[in-house]
Amino acid sequence: MELKNTFFLILLLSTTILQSSSANPKRPEPDRFIVSSCQTTRYPSLCVHTLSAYSTMIRHNNDQDLAQTALTISLARARTPSFKRREYLAIKDCIEVLGNSVDRLGQSVKELGRAGHAVASEDFMWKMSNVQTWVSAALTDETTCLDGFSGQAMEGKLKRLIRLKVVHVAQVTSNALALVNHFAEKRTVKIP
Prior knowledge:
By secondary structure, this protein is mostly helical. It has helices at residues 2-21, 29-38, 44-52, 63-79, 85-90, 92-115, 121-150, 156-190.
């Protein structure tokens, strides 16, 4: 628990330092948009930190671009946790479950792109329902991954390292789901 708190403290400090070092009285529009949008997520500091690096790819006040970018980041993070052979053998079931998560996030990225082009309300809602279901399932996969190895005899340091990697992916995915939901709500109001 102490390591997790330390991780979040370091993340918070690095985000604060990053924001203050680049702070300028007139913040670019995408950054303000990212900051305000990230307030709807469960992990707003992490959301701002991860999305700020991609602010040039997000059109001003475009919720679909924001959700698409968040999903793409989540997909990339789900693909990239690298484990040494010893770590891999200890959690190979967890890694297989993460593979399912990667598949679902990949489907979600594509479907969200198609949803943005939907003209009819029913078509949009169907596509968004698919995205929300798949991202929720990916988040469940990530949680299941953690549950699956928690009871096994494993070195404490190794267990904490793996937990940190998977928790980070789950938090980024949770933020992506919140931004997808926000986009769906705003867009549904606009479609007749």
